[in-house]
Amino acid sequence: MSVMLVDYALVIESVFVVVSLYFLFRYGLAVRRLISEQRDAGDIVGSIMKSIDGKIDRHNERIIDLLYRIDLLEAKQTLGDPHVLQTRNVNNIHENTTGDITSMEMSVLDLLLAGSKSPIEVQRVLGKSREHVARIMKKMFESGYVERDVSKKPFVYRLTDSGRSLIIVVKGS
Q1: Does CATH number 3.40.50.2300 belong to domain 83-172?
Q2: 3-state SS assignment for residue 99
């Protein structure tokens, strides 16, 4: 009788092992299928992101082009002719004293001392945003320290005599 019990126990163990292997195999296949589906979903998301990045780049280029056009239209509105060297009458504008000029503005004046520069060149040297550089250049233009040549795209700025004098005064003190 004890031999029979042992045989039944071996049969039950064997059945348990076979059933366990069957379930492990089935779940292993399911896990492989899930991993494959996740990999495919990741590839799809990656291609969608790449497409969106390309569209964003094209829109950014378009925005930059439109900003240049706006600058030209503003210059045309101010001057009537965008191909004329634009300078301001310093007598009509409140001149800044040396105490009103910032260190960033002095950096720009120093940079322009070496020669004419576009706002993009100034931006690269200073490491500031396009908007920040545009505000600085506009303020210095309105103060009479720089003049703007709008016959080129983008505009080119150069020092006026007033700007040179300011550099001499500030560096001399």
Answers
A1: no
A2: helix
